[in-house]
Specification:
The protein is mainly β. It is 14% helix and 55% strand. A 15-stranded antiparallel sheet has the order 1-2-3-4-5-6-7-8-9-10-11-12-13-14-15, covered by helices on one side.
């Protein structure tokens, strides 16, 4: 090995170091490898007003870590706690969307976006639990509203889309049918647990006496979804 390479290797930071103040004014205390943050450490940014305490992987946030945002003075509130990859949320993690922690997401992340299975608590008191894709509700999921009513079924692009059931718990009724871009298109409304409802309807729903009701609903569903596919094709053109 040449003397130059030997000196270059010795000049690089490796192992555990004390507080290092970077040219930007940011501060890092922790482990290094080949002059890059690697291993456990704590990074405080005075410019972007955040504090990260956790694992680093060759200069980027990687592994488990907690990301906090400065709210004034030396006070911080946790914005995310979980796993990272290449400076982005990746794997299991919890993100808080407000200081009180009322609006938060708990679940899987992929490349910085909610993807996989997760639970979202909204500020209005409603809760969604189910599948996500690219930061949107997509797949199968349950939306429980603050008043107790709930939707169980298919989602796409953050909207009810496909087969699903909407339970009007306060009325003692349930709508079973097909949804398209957040709107119910075809289905049936039935009574369900009216005796337990807080504000039941005055009369029970009459029984359907249509012939071949299943066939009629299936045809209506196919027409509704077909029109949606046609609209998507036109938009692409």
């Amino acid at each position: 090995m040449s003397k130059w390479k030997e000196w270059e290797g010795k000049a690089k930071r490796n192992g555990l170091k004390g507080m290092v103040i970077l040219p930007s004014g940011d501060r890092y205390k922790g482990e290094w490898k080949d002059d890059r943050m690697h291993g456990k450490g704590s990074y405080e940014s005075k410019v972007e007003c955040f504090l990260y305490d956790g694992n680093f992987d060759h200069g980027a946030r990687g592994g488990y870590g907690v990301y906090s945002v400065q709210v004034g003075g030396d006070q911080y509130y946790k914005q995310y706690m979980g796993y990272w990859h290449n400076d982005k949320y990746h794997g299991q993690g919890v993100k808080f969307y407000d200081m009180e922690g009322k609006e938060r997401y708990e679940g899987e992340w992929y490349n910085g976006k909610r993807s996989g299975w997760g639970r979202m608590h909204y500020s209005d008191g409603s809760i969604y639990e189910g599948e996500w894709l690219n930061d949107m509700r997509s797949g199968t999921g349950l939306l429980l509203q603050a008043n107790g009513n709930r939707y169980e079924g298919a989602w796409e692009l953050d909207k009810k889309h496909g087969d699903g059931n909407y339970f009007y718990v306060n009325k003692g009724q349930c709508y079973k049918g097909t949804w398209k871009e957040g709107t119910a298109k075809c289905g049936v409304m039935v009574d369900l647990d009216r005796e337990y409802a807080s504000d039941p309807t005055k009369y029970q729903l009459p029984q359907l006496k249509l012939k071949d009701i299943d066939e009629i609903l299936q045809k209506a569903k196919e027409e509704a979804m077909e029109s949606n596919q046609n609209n998507q094709t036109k938009q692409k053109k």
